[in-house]
Amino acid sequence: MIKINKIKSIVLLLLNLLLIISCGPKDKFEWNAGISAPKNYISGGPFVEYFYQGNGVAGTSANVGINPGWGMTSGGYTGGEIFKPVPDSISVSWRCGLDLIEYKVGAKLPREKMLELFKRGKEIKGKKENYNQIITGMAPGGNVTVWLSGSFGNEEITRIKAKRVGETDKDDPNSVTLWTSTGDEAKDILKYTYLHGIPYSVWEKGEKTYQYDIGFSSEENRDFYESVTAFSKDGSYIFLNENQFIIPYKDWLSNHIMDGVKEGKLPVHTVVQWISEDDKQWYKGEIVFPVDFQNTFESFYQKNKNVHIVYVMDKLNPSGNYTFGTIWLQGSTSKERIMKFRLAKLNNETRKYEISKYTFPKGFVVPKWEGRIPLQRPTDLEYWQEE
């Protein structure tokens, strides 16, 4: 009798375990909450909470300003269980770092769309990859975008318009703002926004993407390390196809560039570094693209295949404190010149650049400022401009 009771107990336990497994929530997934803001367009004190059937399931916040790049996540406090239901609504609040306007919104989310993506994942090279994060981005003008994210990239879910709930003065004694900070990051951001303005509509409508890539070439026969950091109008980082990044000069001359394009937004601003293999020669520059570059690109793009934006460096002048290069649009059979640029040389003794790192295109005009707080020309902004 005792053995029978033990067997019954074990069977009952197994049945209960199976019942728990089979009757457990079917729509729970392993995901984290992330927050985002455009590069150079700071969101202050962001707070996001996700809900399902009226109950909070996850959230994230930061007590500082963030600008990791549009669609990229920034560190902050996060909360929630490991396995969570897909949310059906969201609450978002933050303060725009440039306009110092406070925004807040609560909105429904397209849960069925999100649920399907979580279940299906994304096939990458024949293998299923899962979405593991819900990212909420906050941009000037009260613009909110929500993405599902995985190691392979982001899938836009929805855009939301937040309400203006308050504003603060730039000289508010209770907080340090971009306008009162003496830090280098704040100064660089104010320079960037002076040169590019605040493109409110790009976060409302979204930004176009194209199949292309960025390449680098040089007349120099020596080995150099090159890097191009590119930013799009909406404050996204543009990631390059590293396998096609270096283009031998002879291939650039003959338009012999191997296929290596991928989908991406167009740059409006790039930071270029060129460093010799022995680490003794450092060149750096910040390049503002022509305002009409998108029109030029689209015209070339319609007529050419395998399009690259190529930075081609001139031969060095060893005695100079700068060097020049040219940006080209290049396809499989033709190329078109965009602009010339200058890189400043680092003084190895002082560890400083003795001339400005900024390059403006020919005819460049600073865009009209549309922000709430008037912006003056930065006093330390010097530049070289193509004639």
UniProtKB/TrEMBL annotation:
Name one matching Pfam family: DUF2931
* InterPro entries, per database record: DUF2931
**Protein's recorded name:** DUF2931 family protein
